[in-house]
Structures are given as C-alpha cells and as structure tokens.
Amino acid sequence: MCSRAESSVFWSGMTPAIIEMWERCSSCNRMAPSQPSAPPTPPVQPAYPFQYLVSDYFHYLCWNYLVAVDSYSNWCIVEEAAGDSSGLITALRRIFVTYGISDELISDGGPEFQSHKTKTFLHDWGVNHRTSS
C-alpha cells in the first residue's frame, strides 16, 4: 500500500499516516490475509565446493550465457551457450565435467530450466533442481 502511494505522491510523514489509516480501516482489516507471511528461511550452508550451484541463463549483446556461482566458495563461472535448452544443457555439462556434479542447481526457473530436456538431463545426472522464486 505504501509503495503504491510513494510512487504517486509524497508528503512528510506519509508512511506513518498510511499505516495509521490502514490500521483503523475495518474493511482493510477484513480483507487482509488471514495468515501472515512466513519469515524467510536462511539458506542451507553447503558442506563442500560445488554442492549447490546458483545459476542464471541470460542474453547479452546477441550472445547467450549461463552464469553459475558455487554457494560454498562464491566462485563464479560464465559459459557461452546456444539460445535454447540444448545450449543450457551443454553449458551445464561442461561445468559438471570440470568442477564436479552438484547435488542441487538453483535457478529462477526460466523456460530453458523448465524444459523437458533440461529436467531429464538433471534427473539423469542426479541433480535436484530448485527454483529461487
């Protein structure tokens, strides 16, 4: 509620005024979610290098890339790749062959990561895929 108002107008003491109005609004309280959001869970700390690999597949200046970061050491790897799930699989295979097969691959769940080919590849290599959002 506050962020929407802040994008349109501003006055000194705006946020406390909006919160106070919201708390006194009976229909706002009636329509509010019954369960508060769960607190974020802290990330699991890896026990060894390349156990958890955080990745993103992106396009930049006419080229496609896979960026992967080891959660243990924060080692960053960038692989050039073709623009589809086959390119993603090729880049992941190069990373796994070079650094070892990860237990878990964490991504934003983009279309290349959700394709049947990628899911089959990760399953065959024994890698659990988890989406970050």
From TrEMBL:
Gene3D superfamilies linked to this entry: Ribonuclease H-like superfamily/Ribonuclease H
InterPro entries for this protein: Integrase_cat-core, Retrovirus_Pol_polyprotein, RNaseH-like_sf, RNaseH_sf
BP GO annotations: DNA integration
The organism's place on the tree of life at top rank: Eukaryota
GO molecular function: nucleic acid binding
Chain ranges of the Integrase catalytic domain: 45-133
Entry protein name: Integrase catalytic domain-containing protein
Species assigned in the record: Petrolisthes cinctipes
